[in-house]
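PROTEIN DATA CARD
Card holder: UDP-N-acetyl-alpha-D-muramoyl-L-alanyl-L-glutamate epimerase
Chain length: 460
Origin: Grylomicrobium aquisgranensis
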Amino acid sequence: MQYEELRQKYTDFYYHSFSIEEDEKQLRVTYDFEINNLSHFHPTFTLAKPDAESIAHDPLIRGCAFSLGMVELISYWKISCPPHVHVCCALDEDQVRWWKKLYFNGLGEFFYKNGIQTNEDDFMDLAGGKEVLPAITAQKQTTGNLIAVGGGKDSFVTMDLLKEEKAHNHAFVINRVMSAIHSAQAAGYTGERLINPTRTLDPAMLALNKQGYLNGHTPFSAMAAFAGYLTAAVWHKKYIVLSNESSANESTVKGSKVNHQYSKTFEFEQDFNAYVKKYLPADIHYFSMLRPLSELQIAGIFATLKPYHSVFRSCNVGQKEEKWCGHCAKCLFVCIMMTAFLDEEEVVSIFGRNMLADPEMKELFEELTGMQDNKPFECVGTRDEVNIAVAMGIRRYSRNGKQLPALYDFYTKTPYYHFYQSRSVDWHSYNEQNLLPEHFAAIVKTKLKEMSDESGKLED
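Structure generated from the sequence above:
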């Protein structure tokens, strides 16, 4: 179905309301969305509580629940992209601008893949309603870290960096994503130390997707940010700790702002903090522990965390079965990163095969290295980082006296190899574009110095 045709047929989207139910053990938020002449939708978010205290009418909790609905609605709006969006609660001009910026940039991949030509002004008219949320005046005492865990190498690096604070940490995983849950458990987060809220999608949306209505990528990490903020408010956590690195800032489509990872960028991290400071004030701080680091630095640190090599999973294709599919761009990217620091046998033991020896993965390899204009629409590193990792991997094969696998042999015949062949990870690099509180920044800098001191051994 076509974008303009759908917008003419389904002109209005309504965020009618949100309701909060609770008992002594959990909190449940239910949303009421509607596309006129098409369907109602009632997604939910259910979260365990630390105690029996009633919090459903707490202004901060209500504000967080409403805001989570604001980011959830985009998953339903995209079905037909109605030009007019009506929201139950009042929005000031700054909020309208803030949400439209998130929606437009967070849907960049969706617009690109569906061939939709639009702009931030015209794609949506967003209007608030008459209900005014209660003012947030009292701030409760908060403590400790809420660590978002996705199951990949990044999460393990963050959990390891914060291992000395484990007594004050909670891990946070949305839904029963077993690869992420098992990762948190492997790092010692079990029982009440693992907070595992449930987010449901309305079946009507999934049914409409199957009927040919518009579908595509939405800013999941923005949803996770607001879900994390609500969770931190309920559990009185002081820090929400992400594992987004600096490479998330690079666009996916060369020469454009289209970025698969928009809601993992430093720009969004800054915007989110500005929003919650103004509209959801609390002693809760949201930041990415790994923002100062590159993918190469993270991979190098993870290479030293041997006990986790058999546990971590980043493959979206094999996520439900907790395996690496061994054929997608994400698998190939992680393989390239780990090959820079581990011998072939270790890499094969992780992935089950040597993807670098598979000529059928050449196109994905070219996309990752920048030989083609667009990177894969996956959470992968910068083109520069990938090329440096490839060069490091080639040197490792050479030192070990091993024949180069097909993709690396191909690479040595390109101009890229001559440019990158002597490049390596820079352990002295620390990206100052970050929001790490001083205490956390000191932990990262100490780790970088440790890695710099050990770098000779690591790359041999």
